[in-house]
């Protein structure tokens, strides 16, 4: 069984006009899982509907507590991409479970979204990875603390190890 926690982020954004006015809407995650023919083996809990740039330390504590309190040892978290690495770092103390964060560069409601692929990839990663905290984005898995978002390239990348 996988505990799924939703926090908002681009994956759940709804745009209202050409000026990019948006809000975080109801998660499309149940619909995306049905479309992928995943009908059981998970429990979804909405924690918040926030853009990740608006997440506070108190929000990260709430995410940590929800992951810790889950009776399930495998946790998938949907999250905004801008501060996903920061939240992954905050979850590192939970060493007894597998935690996978994922999101999207384009909202799930858009035709050219990466949300569907990322959710499927993260679903598989959450089932297969050993205990630890990971980010699963665009076909790659990164360990918490060793990843950053490259804003210019619009992708996640490993942080080079110091010489």
Automatic annotation (TrEMBL):
Catalytic residues in the record: 10
SUPFAM superfamilies, per the entry: Glutaminase/Asparaginase
Domain L-asparaginase N-terminal residue range list: 2-150
Alphabetized Pfam families for the sequence: Asparaginase (PF00710)
A Gene Ontology molecular function term of the record: asparaginase activity
InterPro entries for the chain: Asp/glu_Ase-like_sf (IPR036152), Asparaginase/glutaminase-like (IPR006034), L-asparaginase_N (IPR027474), L-asparaginase_N_sf (IPR037152)
Domain of life: Bacteria
Protein name: Asparaginase
């Amino acid at each position: 069984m996988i505990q799924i926690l939703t926090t908002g982020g681009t994956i759940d954004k709804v745009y209202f006009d050409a000026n990019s006015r948006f809000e975080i809407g109801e998660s499309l995650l149940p619909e995306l899982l049905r479309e992928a023919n995943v009908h059981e083996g998970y429990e979804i809990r909405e924690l918040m509907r926030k853009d990740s740039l608006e997440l506070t330390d108190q929000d990260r504590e709430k995410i940590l507590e929800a992951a810790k309190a889950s009776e399930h040892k495998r946790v998938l978290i949907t999250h905004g991409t801008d501060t996903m690495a920061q939240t992954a770092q905050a979850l590192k103390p939970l060493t007894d479970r597998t935690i996978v964060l994922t999101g999207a560069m384009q909202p799930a409601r858009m035709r050219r979204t990466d949300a569907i692929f990322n959710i499927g990839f993260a679903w598989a990663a959450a089932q297969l990875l050993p205990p630890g905290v990971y980010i699963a984005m665009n076909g790659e898995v990164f360990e918490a603390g060793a990843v950053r978002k490259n804003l210019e390239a619009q992708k996640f990348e490993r942080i080079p190890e110091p010489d």
